[in-house]
Amino acid sequence: MSTENPKERIEDILKRNPYLDAKESFFASRGENDWQAIKRLCYFLYRHHKVLPIILVDEYDTPLLEAYTQGYWDEMIATCRQIFHNAFKQNDYYSRAIITGVARISKNSLFSDLNNLEVDTVTCDAYADCFGFTEQEVMDALKCQNSDKMRDVKDLYDGFIFGKQKDMYNPWSICNYVRQGELISYWTNTSSNKLIGDIIRKHPVGRKYEIEQLMSGEKVHKEINENITFQYLDGDENSLWSLLLSVGYIKAENVVHKVDTIECDVSVTNKEVMAMFRTEILGMFHNGFSVYNRFVKALLGHNIEDMNDYLSEIACTSMNYFDVGNEKEARTPENFYHGLILGLIVTLRDRYRIVSNRESGRGRYDIAMYPLEKNQDAFLMEFKVWDKKKEKNLEETVESAFRQIEEKKYVTDLVTAGINEERIYKLGFAFVGKEVLVKEKI
């Protein structure tokens, strides 16, 4: 193993080129001046070439993501601030800098004291054709290799969208394919994977349904803030979607730019990414997911007592007060629990056709589970938030849910589908904050 001092190696390279005089030292004797290494390098390059250099920083946030997930955030952010301050703010010997990363660069972050920042994300039009290879560039590369596999390459690797520029390709995948000639997935894990996994595992239920939609090739309509604030990653649902978009796992279409957010339809980028999605992202949901599987087992077994216990456990351990809300006028906790139950039962797709908010009878039911085999039970679910002005307790709220099912004749569509009404189980869900009550009727 080499014991060569890296500082000595750097100085040796600079002297041999030569950028340093024989008696000059690139590094000062005191360690604190190491923060100025980039500035000093720019000075020596300028002195030799008489041209101000350009500073290129790729994946600037990789050490920050690693520090955040490994628990040494404070030390790393202090170090990076020192380095970037000396490299960009206190440096007169560079012309411009290009910085890339997953987290959007913002003025209220690591670069708060820098001027003249121009920030472009994957939804911006500026430099849209520079984020990857264009289709013409891929065609030219294959032509140089005398390859006639463009259709197959497009089918597997095409799909990235930057701004309005479509049909963009990941350079890493294309370069590997050109070199190896195999149509396989070359997608590699990124430094943000662990962070994405941490977010999913802490709040898995509601998001699992949307991830399953993506896995089925469907689009999900989202409002996304492209600014990722590290301090609030744990409890911020936006962080998951912003990370998925910025690292390329999903693409955004029909983008509408608002003041602080974008509204768009997102879907998995391409077949190569879908393969990674199945093995990496979806697998993140399985850690600590046993209580959710027990809920499904209790549902199918009509064990209402266990359903109440498991749902209460999920509410207490996985939900934020601001998720479920408290005042009906201020939030829509009914919608939140609706999404929660969809996330819990989505694993039953191979046994049930799960339908949400469909017209039936004289209204729209919340959720219905149509069995794919006629000898199985069907389920019809209605969600209600406790109305303190009309109801004394959650028991009365559940009864209100059952009355709505009967009065609106929600079973109509299930019966029309050929399901015996005696096998249609009605479930009433009542909520207030994190308190939950579930009852069942035939």
Give the proportion of residues in helices. 40-55%
Number-wise, the strands total: 15
Helical stretch tally: 17
Q: Which structural class fits the helix and strand makeup?
A: alpha+beta
| Rg for CA atoms | 28 Å
Mean pLDDT: 81
Contiguous low-pLDDT stretches (5 residues minimum) are: 321-331
* Shape summary: elongated
Strand count, sense and closure of the main sheet? 5 strands, mixed
* Total count of domains: 4
End-to-end CA span:
73 Å
Adjacency order of strands in the biggest sheet: 9-12-13-14-15
Could you tell me the strand content as a percent range?
15-25%
Domain AAA-ATPase-like: 34-111
Protein name: AAA-ATPase-like domain-containing protein
Pfam family, one: PDDEXK_9
